[in-house]
Amino acid sequence: YMVLLPFLIHTDSPEKVCVQLTHLNESVTLSATLEYQGENRSLIDDVVSEKDVFTCIPFSLPKSNSQSPVTFLTVTVKGTTLQFRSRKSVLVKDSESLVFIQTDKPIYKPGQTVLFRIVSLDKDFRPLNEVDPKKNRLYQWAKAELKGGLIQLFFNLTSEPMQGTYTVVAQKVSGKTIRHPFSVEEYVLPKFEVTVKMPKVITILDEKLKVTVCGLYTFGKPVPGLVSFRVCRKFEHAATACYGEEAKAVCD
């Protein structure tokens, strides 16, 4: 004979135990009993007359209230001359969905809208409808129902929110929480470039000097602001020394 069953059984999930009997020379009674939460649950209790038989018994277990993660399965075969019994331990774990939280971007600025979605899947990655029954510090969606394993929500940031890291928290029915962080930062203009245009040569006869200063952000927008500049005269000889009013005229 051979008994096949999972090493780990998830609650509220379809499971099955399979039994194979071969070379039987008499009719036997096949029974399988599962010891769970202090009770014996009969999975099968049938008379088998075939010489060879292979059968699978479907079952599911409710969520456990016991602290012990171990349950026992007992398979018994009784006949006129044939009799055997097998008792095996099996781990039982409450089924947990896989919950993912996604925002439309990692960083937001004051006044923007935060778009996010919550996706819930079972252990086989199939959509699972679940409820978020608790609260969120800034915004709360009580009993948010997932349709097709998905829900999409949003909320608006104020014009002057506290800057730093925020967290979207989803709490499952089991009490387990899933967190997804995002940042709120003040709007900072990107880097800019300043160019200066002026004649390469000027003479002593020029009364005016035209200088153009242009500041542009990397995306082409002009930079508002004030510009100050000085025009300096470089002496031909480094040893030249000026005194009085002539020295003040070196830079204008």
Please sum up the structure shown:
With 252 residues, the chain is an all-beta fold. It is built from one helix and 18 strands.
SSE map:
Blueprint: E1 2-4, E2 8-10, E3 15-21, E4 28-36, E5 39-48, E6 53-59, E7 70-78, E8 83-93, E9 98-103, E10 107-108, E11 113-121, E12 131-132, E13 144-145, E14 150-156, E15 164-171, E16 177-184, E17 192-197, E18 212-217, H1 245-248
Parallel strand pairs: 2-8, 10-16
Antiparallel strand pairs: 1-3, 3-6, 4-5, 4-7, 7-8, 9-11, 11-14, 12-13, 15-16, 17-18
What features would you describe in this structure?
The protein has 252 residues and is mainly β. The protein is built from one helix and 18 strands. It has a five-stranded mixed β-sheet, with no helix packed on it.
User: Can you tell me the residue ranges where pLDDT is under 50 for at least 5 consecutive residues?
Assistant: 129-137
What is the count of DSSP helices, taking H or I runs of 4+ residues? Answer: 1
What overall form do the CA principal axes indicate? Answer: rod-shaped
Number of strands: 18
